[in-house]
Amino acid sequence: MMPIQLLLKLLPDNVSGEILKYDTSGHQTNNFSYSVSYASIIFTKPGETKSGFFLPKKEPTDLFLLTSEEKARLLTLARNTLEIYTKTGNPPKLDQINNQLTLKLKEKYGVFVTLKKHGELRGCIGHILPKEPLFQGVIENTINSSSRDWRFNPVDTKEVSDITIEISVLGIPKRIPGSDNFMVGKEGILIRKGPYSAVFLPQVAVEQGWDRAETLCHLCQKAGLSRDAWKEDDMEFYVFTADVFHEGVKS
User: Fold this and answer.
1) Which ranges of the chain does DSSP label H, i.e. alpha helix?
2) 3-class DSSP state for residue 144?
3) pTM for the structure as a whole
4) Contact 133, 107 (CB under 8 A)
5) Which residues does residue 200 pair with via DSSP β-bridges, in sequence order?
6) Which fold has domain 57-251?
């Protein structure tokens, strides 16, 4: 029996599956002679999820109660992670971090880490939902942004001093009835249509000078959809707030 067949047989009887993402190697290379399919499927029990999201049973503590000292510690942690990982390929040792952590930094939050070089995007990856303690999310996404953002080559040690780090700590996404309820510049937005999805942090539209329609058009393109797909009836919209803070801009 194939491993996937075995895993499917182990699932409880009352679960249902939903395709979150589907793609093929042929779509990526434009060569369908030898194409492999990839699918991301979520299996859930009734009432456990909402449109594919594992929504927490309760909200984390108020985002905006992070103190300036806690934000500084997270930025220092991200900076140390970037320097250590680009030199050694390893994350920082947790035993050197734990004594610097407050209870708030150990709570679970969604978090993105954005890297910029001379003001230009150099990498950005994160978690929308609170899957792990905040400090661990900062470590993981600093590494991911510097080495696993498919849009860029991995960050080289020679670049580290030219890079500015920005951290976005996210609130829980909530579904809204339509695009008119999206507050541009104040909220981040995630769209979902079948297996396609994409997200913009709140600051993206402001930095690019986009209005609501322009933001949604670019977001649809990012998801691999037509620019006007956000106008279709089966599009789902989720918004979230974020506490965004960054290092001083490097010249």
Assistant:
1) 3-10, 25-29, 68-88, 134-147, 202-208, 212-222
2) helix
3) 0.74
4) yes
5) 189
6) Glycoprotein, Type 4 Pilin (3.30.700)
Joined tokens for residue 175: 């579904």
Q: What is the pLDDT of residue 49?
A: 46
Residue boundaries of the structural domains of the chain? 13-49, 57-251
With contact defined as beta carbons under 8 Å apart, do 233 and 154 qualify? no
130: nearest Cα among 182, 195, 53: 53
Angle between helices 68-88 and 134-147 (to 10 degrees): 40
- Using alpha carbons, list the distances in angstroms from residue 220 to 18, 40, 139, 217: 20, 19, 29, 5
Q: Please write the tens of the pLDDT for every residue from 113-145.
A: 999 999 999 999 999 988 899 999 999 999 999
Element (H, E) at 188: strand 188-193
The mean pLDDT value for 159-185 works out to 94
How many CB atoms neighbour CB 247 within 10 A?
16
Residues 15 and 28: beta-carbon distance below 8 Å: no
